[in-house]
């Protein structure tokens, strides 16, 4: 099972490491930027290039981990190299490959937030798969099962809702951490004092549903506290509006 990584960002870096740990040979890394291809190629001790005409033609699996908006344009010029082509995006349908040179294609979507500098264990990461042929669906499931204990075949239609939910659960939540950190840093308070609270919030939903775990002034509809907080945010209308909208939404859903 020879693998070529198309892209050298966060997802490609972590997938490349995971493939290598499971003895799947990554034979090449391609990136539009040579320095990025070189960095990941050297990390994985494999060939690298930024030239499409130099893409290895004999790999079994081509894993596209590039920006969603960049994928359709890349596929227009990607060489007809054979093998199974998959992308790793949550919001891009499998049919993005229909206008490309691929005859075998699918999706290999690990549901996790990735950073180059922070290695993660794939064992508990759900991997969602999809393929345009039953045999390739089985192949993707087998590869995914080598990395993860939870492999779930999922259609493009359902996967786009999964990605939407993930944006709320991860990206928006992390942005709220950033807002909280800004508020504390403005008062010269170390934002890391919030870490035990963040950890317990995440731990509770291992046992309770998110609705059952909800606490705070919005749940109690504690108007004096809410109004006091809004007054404190009067000089930052964006944060004030976020606080107001979230408080209203929590109250409406918890009534």
Structural description of this entry:
It is a single chain. The protein is α/β, with parallel strands linked by helices and 255 residues long. Helices cover 47% and strands 14% of the residues. An eight-stranded mixed sheet has the order 3-2-1-4-5-6-7-8, with helices on one face. Helix 9 (223-232) runs antiparallel to helix 10.
Topology:
Blueprint lengths: L2 E4 L3 H12 L4 E5 L3 H10 L3 E3 L11 E4 L6 H7 L6 E4 L16 E7 L16 E5 L2 H14 L3 E3 L2 H31 L8 H10 L5 H4 L3 H4 L2 H10 L4 H18 L1
Parallel strand pairs: 1-2, 1-4, 2-3, 4-5, 5-6, 7-8
Antiparallel strand pairs: 6-7
Which spans of ≥5 residues are poorly predicted at pLDDT below 50? none
The name of the CATH superfamily of the largest domain reads NAD(P)-binding Rossmann-like Domain
- The total of helices stands at 10
CATH architecture descriptor name of the largest domain: 3-Layer(aba) Sandwich
Fraction in beta strands: 5-15%
Largest sheet: 8 strands, mixed
Total count of domains: 2
């Amino acid at each position: 099972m020879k693998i070529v990584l198309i892209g050298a960002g966060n997802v490609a870096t972590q997938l490349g490491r995971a493939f290598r740990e499971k003895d799947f040979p990554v034979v090449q890394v391609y990136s539009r930027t040579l320095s990025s291809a070189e960095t990941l190629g050297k990390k994985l001790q494999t060939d690298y290039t930024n030239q499409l005409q130099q893409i290895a033609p004999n790999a079994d699996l081509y894993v596209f981990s590039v920006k969603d908006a960049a994928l359709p344009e890349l596929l227009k010029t990607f060489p007809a190299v054979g093998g199974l082509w998959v992308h790793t995006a949550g919001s891009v349908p499998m049919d993005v490959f229909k206008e490309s040179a691929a005859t075998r294609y699918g999706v290999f979507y690990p549901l996790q937030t990735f950073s180059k500098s922070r290695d993660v264990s794939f064992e508990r990461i759900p991997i969602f798969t999809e393929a345009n042929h039953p045999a390739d669906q089985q192949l993707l499931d087998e590869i995914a099962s080598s990395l993860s204990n939870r492999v779930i075949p999922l259609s493009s239609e359902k996967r786009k809702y999964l990605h939407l939910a993930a944006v709320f659960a991860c990206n928006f939540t992390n942005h709220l951490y950033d807002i909280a950190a800004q508020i504390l840093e403005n008062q010269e308070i170390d934002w890391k004092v919030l870490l035990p609270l963040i950890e317990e919030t995440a731990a509770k939903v291992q046992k309770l549903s998110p609705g059952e775990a909800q606490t705070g002034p919005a749940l109690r509809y504690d108007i004096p506290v809410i109004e006091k907080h809004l007054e404190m945010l009067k000089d930052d209308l964006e944060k004030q509006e976020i606080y107001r909208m979230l408080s209203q939404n929590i109250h409406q859903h918890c009534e």
